[in-house]
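In response to reviewer comment 3 from the previous cycle, which asked for concrete evidence that the modeling workflow produces usable outputs, we include below a single protein chain processed end to end. The sequence was submitted unchanged, and the resulting structure tokens are shown without manual editing.
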Amino acid sequence: NNALEWFDKAIKAADNEESKDKYSRYYKAFYLMNRGVLKAEMIDFIASLEGNVQTLSMDTEGTTRARVSDRVARSYDYSEAIADIKAALDILPDIPYLYFDLGNLHCLSSDMVSAIEDYDMALKLYPEMGEAHFNRGLVLIYLKDKEKGCIDLSRAGELGIGDAYSVISKYCDDNE
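The workflow returned the following structure tokens.
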């Protein structure tokens, strides 16, 4: 929480009329982006802890048993992180990595259509972004558009994303 407080202060300082300079809007976008990413990382950390909880129970003979709790599908609220990235994009709409980050947050929020739109925009601005091809390919395959997804994964591999080839062999080879 301390880091979030520092980002909040930095964002306010970037808006302060007395301290504004020609770079203030860039600082603010940078702080918003990093605060959004930090919020998402905190949610992911909490989610990872919740998936590894052990429950202790005692049976009628007094024997203590430990078991890992059953995995329950939970969704987490990334709306604050998404709002921060969108605010950064309002300031700097030509930064492809902001769209990439927004796409990742939309994926985590199970908004796959928005994720594809964000990856599309990242690739429009920076066609050689292998990570965006890779993630868009995964989302397309998840949405049952295997042909387009495999094309994206292939392009990601060409651009140096090594993990693309194992995904291609699993989902794109014709011998399924």
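The chain has a mean pLDDT of 88. We consider this sufficient to address the reviewer's concern, and the full set will be provided in the supplementary archive.
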